[in-house]
Amino acid sequence: MNMFGMTFGGRTAFWSLAGAVALTACLTPPSARAEEPKKPNIVVILADDMGWGDVGWHGSQIATPNLDRLAASGARLEQFYVQPVCSPTRAAFMTGRYPMRHGLQVGVVRPWAQYGLPLDERTLPQALKEAGYETAIAGKWHLGHFRPEYLPTRRGFDHQYGHYNGALDYNTHVRDDGHDWHRDDKENHDKGYSTHLLAGEAVRVIAEHDVARPLFLYVPFNGVHAPHQVPDRYKEPYSTLAEPRRTYAGMLAAVDEAVGQIAGAIAKKGIGDHTLIVFSSDNGGPNPGRVTSNGPLRGAKATLFEGGVRVAAFANWPGRIKPGSVVNAPLHIVDLYPTFLKLAGASTDQSLPLDGRDAWSAIVEGKASPHDAILLNATQTNGAIRVGDWKLIVGRPGGPGEAEADGAPAPAVPADAGRVLLFNLAEDPYEKRDLAASQPAKVAELRARYDALAAQAVPPRAAPKPPGFRSPRVWGQSD
């Protein structure tokens, strides 16, 4: 049975999604129900820095009941790939194009960066607006804010709520001495824990939505990214865990509660059977073992091993996606763009070609991946590609070093650029056996595929902190 939770006074109540939908349908006049659009509502929920092993269906010691129920009543995407770090994943999702085409393949967009997602890119909310959708974001943007035209309401969102940067304080909403909380891209001073505020906004958007139009709602939580902060009551069930994992567990519990509130709002609105919900993390968990868990997957955030680029994900749409299904076809977050556009009846004709592929038949019919190759990244120092069951890592698998992650340019000729690792993920899903020496023909095959794509990469953008830089009073606006 699908069950979802809403929190009242610190206590969580659960009820049946199917029952709530049925009750709402009974109370809704037939004329009103007939006005529901044929195009599905699309709700995308993105966690930040969540480990692959930190959900119940992967054996987590952290309780994630709402995520688990949505995953169980839909399709678990067990080989779902993203980028090694945050902004690149968001750029890929927004455009259906690999971030090496945006110059966003290395590091994240820092608060002081004088760039963002290029303005010539057609974004997902822009495309869905063309198809008649109401579009809203409640959460972290992280794709540039240095000029007004880079802000979410200029990139296709009718409504915006939340923050532009990563790693802000969850309670004060300050990053590097600058205020970073906004509504419709204007300064906002709502008080509260950020996960609670974002959940409340998402619930409001759903409750006030006019069902005569389809809705695209994007909820990219800053949870469970550092700084690790959460109200004490969320940590109480995890007293046996050592810090900082205990606080991280509480943060994830708060995110899971928020997901339950969003699902509950969908049920209360009576649109559950016409709403596609997709959940993912933006990258693998950092510091596995100490903070997060990536289960048996090798590596962590900022690496090209599976623990850095393969994440817990699911898709849920009652009546359209078979409950309890498991999708083992390799998919990438770039695939959501063309998949959503096709479901929405929106055009995929655009001046910049897509890397994403329509993945709907893989999700609902169990068909093979629409890709013959998935580029996991391509930078000046490293990269990776998956072709069928084979995966090649070129250069340093550990990803960018700290200097590069902060936006410094990568060395022109890295010392280990010629190093390669080869894995057969069907036989060795945890990347324990490097087969490069014993499979030179396969290395050559994958290297040729990788080099052809890497040659199309634009130079990565960089944003070292300028000497003497002073944060503005409010990020995204001039003082």
Detail the poorly predicted runs. 1-37, 400-415
User: In CATH, what is the class of the largest domain?
Assistant: Alpha Beta
The total domain count is 2
Q: Kindly report the name of the CATH homologous superfamily of the largest domain.
A: Alkaline Phosphatase, subunit A
* Distance separating the two termini: 53 Å
The 3D shape can be described as globular
Taking the sheet with the most strands, its summary is: 10 strands, mixed
Average pLDDT rating: 91
The helix content is 25-40%
Q: What name is given to the CATH topology of the largest domain?
A: Alkaline Phosphatase, subunit A
User: Order of strands across the widest beta sheet?
Assistant: 11-10-7-6-12-3-13-15-4-16
Q: What structural class do you assign from the helix and strand content?
A: alpha/beta
Number of helices: 13
Radius of gyration from the alpha-carbon trace, in angstroms? 21 Å
Characterise this structure.
The protein has 479 residues and is an alpha/beta fold. The protein has 2 domains: 37-365, Alkaline Phosphatase, subunit A (3-Layer(aba) Sandwich); 374-454, Arylsulfatase, C-terminal domain (2-Layer Sandwich). It contains 13 helices and 21 strands. It has helices at 17-27, 30-34, 65-72, 86-95, 124-130, 194-208, 232-235, 245-269, 306-309, 336-344, 360-365, 402-405, 440-454, and strands spanning 3-8, 11-16, 41-47, 75-77, 80-81, 134-140, 159-163, 174-175, 178-179, 182-183, 186-187, 215-220, 275-281, 310-311, 314-316, 325-327, 331-332, 374-378, 382-387, 390-395, 420-424. The strands form 5 sheets. A 10-stranded mixed β-sheet has the order 11-10-7-6-12-3-13-15-4-16, sandwiched between helices. α1 runs parallel beside α8 (245-269) and α6 (194-208) runs parallel beside α8. It is globular and about 60 Å long. Residues 1-34 form the signal peptide. This is Arylsulfatase. InterPro entries: Alkaline_phosphatase_core_sf, ARSB, Sulfatase_CS, Sulfatase_N. It comes from Paludisphaera mucosa.
